[in-house]
Amino acid sequence: xxxxxxxxxLFAPGEAKAESAxxxxxxxxxxxxxxxxxxxRSLGLSSVSDRLGRVHRKLYLSDGSVFETDDNDGIDRLxxxxxxxxxxxxxxxxxxxxxxxxxxxxxAVIVGIYRYGLPxxxxxxxxxxxxxxxxxxxxxxxxxxxxTLFSPSDLPxxxxxxxxxxxxxxxxxxxxxxxxxxxxxxxxxxxxPNAFALPGGTVVMTDELxxxxxxxxxxxxxxxxxxxxxEKRHGLRNLYRVLGVGFMIAAVGGDSxxxxxxxxxxxxxxxxxxxxxxxxxxxDMRGAELMLAAGRDPFAFIDLxxxxxxxxxxxxxxxxxxxxGTQSRRGAVAAHIESLKPR
Amino acid sequence: xxxxxxxxxxxxxxGIWIVNLLLSLVTLGVYSAWAKVxxxxxxxxxxxxxxxxxxxxxxxxxxxxxxxxxVVLLVGxxxxxxxxxxxxxxxxxxxxxxxxxxxxxxxxxTRMTSHRNIRLGFEGNYWSAFFAFIIxxxxxxxxxxxxxxxxxxxxxxxxxxxxxxxxxxxATDVKLxxxxxxxxxxxxxxxxxLVVVIGVGAAIGGALYAVWGSLDxxxxxxxxxxxxxxxxxxxxxxxxxxYATFFLGYFFYQCGVRNLAYRATKLQGExxxxxxxSRGRYVWILISNTFVTLLTVGLxxxxxxxxxxxxxCDHTAIAASAPLNEIVATSEREGNVATAEFLDxxxxxxxx
Lengths: 343, 352
Prior knowledge:
The structure holds 2 protein chains of 2 kinds.
Chain A: E1 6-11, E2 18-27, E3 30-35, E4 40-48, E5 57-61, E6 66-69, H1 72-79, H2 85-94, H3 96-128, H4 131-148, E7 151-152, H5 157-173, E8 182-187, E9 195-197, E10 202-206, H6 207-212, H7 216-231, H8 234-253, H9 258-293, H10 300-311, H11 326-340
Parallel strand pairs in A: 8-10
Antiparallel strand pairs in A: 1-2, 1-6, 2-3, 3-4, 4-5, 5-6, 7-8, 9-10
Helix pairs in contact in A: 3-8, 5-7, 7-9, 7-10, 8-9, 9-11
Chain B: E1 2-6, H1 10-26, H2 32-45, E2 47-49, E3 52-56, H3 60-83, H4 91-111, E4 113-115, E5 118-122, H5 126-142, H6 148-162, E6 163-165, E7 168-172, H7 176-212, H8 222-227, H9 229-263, E8 265-267, E9 271-275, H10 279-295, H11 301-314, E10 316-318, H12 337-345
Antiparallel strand pairs in B: 1-2, 1-10, 2-3, 3-4, 4-5, 5-6, 6-7, 7-8, 8-9, 9-10
């Protein structure tokens, strides 16, 4: 290459002392360096540090010495590195217009991943999770709950068997392929009248809930709702989505410190509530379908839930609650049933 | 006295940061290893002492491998915790492995840092690390913080006395008395904040009372008490207030410890380091950084990062005339990248 001089300084191998020097030529992987007294030496070039902002460039030479310079452009020109990936990236990072555009793109990518990417990825991951894993998760969760919140059910054996049989009939109508739905009963003062589904198909119902029901259709309606959660793999999808959000927070704000990360995590938890609510609506619709298919009353479960929430003094919709309010649930189920009718 | 200085700026770093973020996202995190190296190279490379900058030498592929190992281990551990509740017994071997992790990680991150063509180095000892990072913190915890200054002294001395710049060793001897003074000041600072938070909480409570106007809890059931908006507001303010008080007191304390540890450290037995951060100002920078970062949904993060880094540089120095010239490199093993990434991903920071 031509004789472009690049001034900088040269560190002898393994030494802290630097002498000013000039890089005067590059030829076949060797650079010629001239020290302050005018003595020129030719040394092999081992590697060059990547361009980054105005950070000084370093040329690592074959004898262990290091040539350092702030003439980034000169180095790129002399070594023909203008088209090197990081040299290009560095030009982009330094251009106000490119950075403005990339900022908008980044925000769009973050929103896109959060809104569409994560739920889709979570659905795929849930679909790919083998039943053996979800079965183990069920066992683990249940044993933890049994030690902390639950006591054994005191419903009469006959009543439990009767409900379990009807539950099995309902489950046979669903499209659950890789989980084994089974119903178990527990008593719990802490969580009160309640029911929930675990990813592997275990549906837990509390004695308190069964006792509040006026007829079997009310209980079965709640169980249909839980079966819908199992069928649509809501539990797993939620789990994976929360994991993904955690990863995203770490990626976006990873170096911002504990407080920023804590606040972001709390914010994400709020966001998750609205997401869970979507799952609940979906489970309501699918549960009503199952009840219709079984020839039962698809609205019965709303009566039961209405009775429970009324007693607890909870009212209507709220952005904080995951389950929709009773009135809007009834309306949504009615509309859904209407839409299922053949025209 | 040679002061550190920082030649980077928020505008320039913003471009690097946004490109790092975008590429990390679209490569599903793979690029984050390159991003980390570029971030540290930017900060180290723009930090000058005595006319020479620092440099960070880890190769991104090394970092990537370390990250993969750590992520796999952490995911595995979390799955195990979810599946078998007894997985927490793994914390015992973890406590015994931690000193090893710290030693290897410190060795790696110091070996990857250079100034004037000379790498830093660290050579630790397992049981000393076990004492400084397991026994002493447990002791501080068990005594409700009374032994915290002793723990700080042990940690600072351990790190300082095993640290090297090329062939030149550092030596640290932090005294207990100033550490306890700093500890007392930190508690005072935390208490003042607590009073401020209670005052703000009372003002908010008063305003809410004026709006909703009911705090008649007599004869109310437990559930009704919890659902009273005023009670909820008071509860939220107390939790946030206590959290803030704890963190502010902690940062105040750590800042004081840094000053004392640097001032008690000498290079080659004769050139003292110096640190004169103002604790109040440092805490203010951290709080305002947090708020600005959150209010701009992260977009001002580069500005915040540059601001706190620059503040630290401006208040750190070494009292050496020209001895740095004579130091030569030593060859030393590199340490272990996975351990360094473990500390990085778990957010364990030594504030070096």
